[in-house]
Design a protein that fits this description.
Layout lengths: L11 H21 L3 H21 L3 H12 L1 H8 L1 H13 L1 H7 L5 H17 L3 E5 L6 H4 L3 E6 L2 H7 L10 E5 L2 E7 L15 H12 L3 E5 L6 E5 L2 E3 L4 H12 L5 H7 L1
Helix pairs in contact: 7-9, 7-11
Length: 264
């Protein structure tokens, strides 16, 4: 028997698989780094190693104990990692290749109405909070407000956020190109690093985007400044042109670059 008989044959597909597994593990590490999920994962890994040792040592009682734990192990992992699993699914849903097959028709006309309304509210310093549903459903938040199911128009948005209108206090939620509800209650962010000069509208915008993949537009009642929140981050001093581009990119992923350039 020669040395070559002991060599394990390696195919090109094996090298590709090793590379993919390494990349996935690296991305999971980046995704979980700095969260409690890392500590939970270490604990789960420790339990698994103990089970391997117990099985190797043929400890009957401990094997039975770990066998009982194994029956509910998958359910326990889902419960423990629920926030991380939700974030992962949201990241997958935000992928342009995925959204291309699930996106609604282009919304250029609706977006023009939204930008015109937001621009006017900014000039008149009318406070506004508008949340746009993307791949993650906002039904739970929609049910907290007054149901409208109305087409988006500039005049309707201005009317809703007029200070004497009972619907102005809260958020408008847009789904599939329609205003689903107004006066909706959004979760307020508990992030202690948020600037102290930001009010409840901005904190609610950040809070919703921390928990979902929604895009939220805020108009400050004090300064008229337009802000946009995505993925738990808030960008302030957004111009009407930038706002239009952000809405086009977020809500109409099927548009080609040439089409976007023409519209701009």
């Amino acid at each position: 028997m020669t040395l070559f008989d002991w060599v394990i044959p390696i195919r090109v597909v094996d090298l590709i698989e090793i590379g993919l597994v390494a990349w996935i593990l690296y991305k999971l590490y980046q995704w979980m780094r700095g969260t409690i999920a890392v500590q939970i994962f270490v604990g789960v890994l420790a339990l698994y190693l103990i089970q391997v040792l117990v099985t190797a040592a043929d400890m009957t009682m401990l094997q039975a104990l770990f066998g009982s734990i194994g029956d509910v192990f998958v359910l326990a992992v889902i419960v423990l990692f629920q926030p991380e699993i939700r974030r992962l699914l949201l990241l997958v849903g935000q992928n342009p290749l995925v959204r291309r097959f699930m996106s609604s028709p282009a919304q250029e006309e609706r977006i023009s109405s939204i930008v015109a309304a937001v621009n006017e509210m900014s000039e008149r310093k009318i406070g506004a909070l508008i949340a746009f549903e993307r791949s993650a459903g906002l039904r739970g938040y929609i049910e907290t407000g007054a149901q409208l199911h109305a087409y988006i128009t500039r005049d309707l948005l201005l009317t809703i956020f007029y200070s004497q209108n009972p619907l102005h206090d809260g958020a408008v939620i847009v789904r599939n190109g329609r205003i689903e509800a107004a006066r909706c209650i959004l979760p307020v962010s508990a992030n202690m690093n948020i600037a102290s000069d930001l009010g409840l509208r901005h904190r609610a915008a950040i809070g919703l985007t921390e928990q979902t993949d929604a895009l939220v537009v805020v108009v400050s009642e004090q300064t008229g400044v337009i802000s946009v929140s995505v993925e738990g981050r808030l960008e302030r001093n957004v111009t009407s042109g930038d706002l239009r581009l952000k809405l086009l990119q977020a809500l109409s992923p099927q548009l080609t670059p040439a089409k976007e350039k023409t519209d701009g």
